[in-house]
Every structure is written in C-alpha cells, then in structure tokens.
TrEMBL record:
Domain AAA+ ATPase, first and last residues per copy: 99-243
Organism in which the protein naturally occurs: Companilactobacillus futsaii JCM 17355
Top-level division of the source organism's lineage: Bacteria
SMART domains linked to this entry: AAA (SM00382)
One Pfam family in the UniProt entry: AAA
Protein name as it appears in the record: AAA+ ATPase domain-containing protein
Length: 249
C-alpha cells in the first residue's frame, strides 16, 4: 500500500509539474506520513476505547443496571454522606492523574460503598480499563466445576482482573459467611483471593467491605490481608452514616 501511495504521489507531482505547479516531493511524503500516523493513532485510540468498554461490560454484578450509577446519582442527605462523596470524587481524580493505590471502603451495609465505587469506575472508564467484581459471586462461579460456560467466564474474569487498570472487589468478606459473626474464610476462598491479589501489584484496586480490620484478622490469613489491603490510611474511607438505600425511591 505504501509503494502504491508513493507511486500515486509521484504521478501527481509529475502531472502538476506539467501544469506549471512545482511541489517538493519531500513535503508530499511528509504530509502522507503525517496523515498515516494520525490515522494509526485514531485507530489505536478507538480500539483501546472499545476494549475498555468491553472489559467494563464483563463486570460481575447481581444487577447490571447498577453499573450505570454515577456521582450525580448519589443523593446527599447529611454532612457525612457529602464527605464520603467528596472523598470518592477525590480518589477518582487521583487515579485519573496517574496515582496507583489500594483503596478500602468499609462500613455498615447500605451506606454507599458500592455505589460510589461504581461511580469512580464510570468516571474513569473512558481513559482506563475498569472492572467490577462481586467477590462472592465470583467464588461461587469458580465452584461450578462441571459447567463449561462457567469455566470460560471464570477464565475470562481472571484475565480481566489481571489486566484491568482499575478493579473493584465488592463486598469482601461476604464470601466467607452470610452470618453476622465473623467466620474464618475457607482455604479455597483465600487461595482465590491471594491469586487475585498477586496479579494486582502495581495496579489500582478498590475494595468494599462491611468488615472492620479486627474482623479481617479473624477471617483471613495475615499474609493475604497484607497483600490485598496494605495501604496508607489516607486511602481508607470509613462509611458510618445511616442506610443510604432506605431513602432511594
């Protein structure tokens, strides 16, 4: 194709010369190379954008409509919720500016942890590859040993979790017990979590959980806690306002 373009350029230059118009062949080649380079950049950007959207759409969540939530959907009803919203927006801006950290959102159920983590992903998904994974759903999916479709989805999610620029691991701790009392997570669960933690080195991971640090020590191996959640205190948000969901609709 490049040889054809070069041939056509030469024919065009020769034709214009006969018409009395003189053009520098070097300028023509430079313009052609510039157009080709710009086209390649646009094609690459379009591919990356579509790839980011495909990764986000592969998120594992109970209600897929929730993936559309943004900061504008978070209805602030008190000062604490306003502070939570501002911290989440600040985290999104920090990630957008290139920071890579582990972030932990912890507190009571229904206080906006999941909603704000999804809002962060929606803020970033056009620039970064983003993925949301309900960890209890994922672990249950891995246990469907005789289901070929489940195996394919698990492998696809493992790959996406390894490659995603920003990953939300939602409701960590729910996979160990559905009861209020803390219960030690099984070796199987912890092995899966450790594998995920291993592939997240150097990437941004946001963890939401209903458990405090004290409960985590009862549920998980200390090495897993360190690998998965070791982060600066400024990257930890405690959600302790009233149940946000009671005021929706």
């Amino acid at each position: 194709m490049q040889n054809l373009n070069s041939f056509l350029d030469k024919k065009m230059i020769e034709h214009l010369r006969k018409k009395g118009v003189h053009i520098d062949p070097t300028t023509v080649e430079q313009d052609r190379d510039k157009r080709q380079h710009e086209a390649e950049i646009k094609a690459t950007q379009a591919y990356l954008h579509q790839n980011n959207l495909d990764i986000f759409k592969s998120s594992l969540i109970g209600n897929t409509e929730s993936l559309e939530q943004t900061f504008d959907d978070f209805n602030v009803m008190n000062d604490k919720q306003n502070a939570d919203l501002e911290q989440a927006i600040n985290i999104a801006n920090r990630i957008a500016n290139g920071e890579r950290h582990k972030f932990v959102f912890y507190g009571k159920p229904g206080t906006g942890k999941t909603m704000l983590s999804i809002s962060i992903l929606n803020k970033l998904k056009n620039k970064y590859s983003c993925l949301f994974v309900d960890i209890a759903m994922f672990i249950e999916l891995t246990k469907r040993f005789n289901d070929e479709r489940a195996k394919l989805q698990v492998n696809s999610l493992y790959k996406a979790m390894s490659n995603a620029d920003v990953l939300v691991i939602d409701d960590l701790g729910s996979e160990s017990s559905l009861q209020r009392s803390a219960k030690e997570s099984s070796d199987y669960n912890q092995k899966i979590l450790f594998n995920i933690a291993q592939c997240r080195d150097g990437k941004t991971t946001i963890i939401t959980t209903n458990n405090s640090g004290v409960n985590f020590k009862k549920i998980y191996n200390p090495k897993l806690i360190s690998k998965l959640m070791n982060t600066d205190k400024s990257n930890i948000i405690h959600f302790d306002s009233e149940d946000y969901r009671r005021h929706i609709n």
